[in-house]
């Protein structure tokens, strides 16, 4: 009997993530790139201190990344930022899924109907990863640029996804990530979060009531795939003085309708 062929493009040790199968220099370089993205405008010495690597090691990695336009330095101050090469690579991730394209018009409509910023996000590594945003024109507004991450239990999109996950999956996310308290309103116990997720399912949308940042509210709803599984979420975020709790039912209906529109446009179905 002929041996079963391995999946194309994957070596025999594909699932072996031990040190012998990682390239340490590449690992350090990518870690440094993540640091530059998270903390733009740091100097060479600051990046070395933050990463725990020697200045010479960090310099060589930065020069290598700069050669591929993944990072770039400001003139004069030598402060480092993400470069256009990183943007080019990152946008290929967005092109993998049609949800970003199909969500753009509903998000634009949401922003105009509510006057607040509309966001699109998915779950990545037990966190919310924001993919796209349509900003309001208001001076005071929520800001989640593409690539920003947030804990699921304090994010409207995160709670919208968790509400339609199975309880076992929710408990595993809690075990892995914990329930860090950010404000006095954070749902920092499993019982409180599960009660909130049940209420979310009942009304069809999630509410982040100043649970991550005091003075900011968010209303979100899930987007489903063809199997009725939550794979993304749409939200509207803004300051609490403009989004009162009495406004959340009206905004929730708009967000849910927009999310359902994206579900239909991408071939998904309600669970």
Quick take:
The protein is an alpha+beta fold and 271 residues long. It is built from 9 helices and 8 strands. It has 2 domains: 19-82, Winged helix-like DNA-binding domain superfamily/Winged helix DNA-binding domain (Arc Repressor Mutant, subunit A, Orthogonal Bundle), CATH 1.10.10; 96-265, Beta-Lactamase (2-Layer Sandwich).
Radius of gyration over all CA atoms, rounded:
21 Å
Number of DSSP E strands: 8
Could you name the CATH topology of the largest domain?
Beta-Lactamase
Strand order of the largest sheet: 5-4-3-8-7-6
Distance, first to last CA: 43 Å
Helix content: 40-55%
Broad CATH class of the largest domain: Alpha Beta
Q: Please identify, by name, the CATH architecture of the largest domain.
A: 2-Layer Sandwich
- DSSP strand content: 15-25%
Shape descriptor reads globular
Poorly predicted sequence stretches spanning 5 or more consecutive residues: 13-17
The whole-number mean of residue pLDDT values reads 88
Q: For the record, what is the CATH homologous superfamily label of the largest domain?
A: GAF domain
Outline the biggest β-sheet.
6 strands, antiparallel
Category by helix and strand content: alpha+beta
* Domains, number: 2
Task: State the helix count.
Answer: 9
GO biological process, one term: negative regulation of DNA-templated transcription
Protein name: IclR family transcriptional regulator
Domain HTH iclR-type: 23-84
Domain IclR-ED: 85-268
């Amino acid at each position: 009997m002929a041996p079963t062929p391995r999946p194309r493009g994957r070596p025999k040790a594909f699932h072996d993530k031990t040190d012998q199968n990682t390239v340490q220099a590449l690992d350090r370089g990518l870690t440094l790139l993540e640091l530059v993205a998270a903390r733009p405008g740091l100097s060479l010495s600051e990046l070395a201190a933050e990463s725990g690597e020697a200045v010479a090691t960090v310099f060589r990695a930065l020069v290598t990344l700069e050669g591929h336009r993944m990072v770039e330095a400001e003139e004069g101050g030598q402060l480092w930022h993400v470069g256009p090469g990183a943007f080019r690579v990152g946008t290929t991730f967005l092109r993998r899924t049609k949800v970003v394209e199909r969500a753009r018009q509903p998000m634009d409509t949401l922003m105009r109907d509510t006057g607040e910023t509309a966001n699109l996000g998915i779950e990545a590594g037990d966190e919310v990863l924001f993919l796209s945003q349509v900003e309001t024109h208001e001076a005071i507004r929520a800001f989640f640029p593409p690539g920003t991450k947030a804990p699921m239990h304090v994010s409207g999109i995160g709670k919208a996804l968790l509400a339609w996950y199975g309880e076992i999956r929710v408990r595993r996310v809690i075990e892995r990530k914990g329930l860090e308290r950010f404000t006095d309103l954070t749902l920092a116990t499993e019982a409180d979060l599960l009660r909130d997720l049940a209420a979310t399912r009942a009304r069809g949308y999630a509410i982040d009531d100043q649970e991550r940042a005091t003075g900011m509210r968010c209303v979100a709803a899930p987007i489903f795939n063809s199997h009725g599984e939550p794979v993304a979420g749409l939200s509207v975020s803004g300051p609490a003085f403009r989004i009162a709790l009495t406004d959340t039912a009206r905004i929730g209906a708009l967000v849910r309708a927009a999310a359902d529109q994206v579900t239909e446009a991408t071939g998904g179905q309600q669970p």
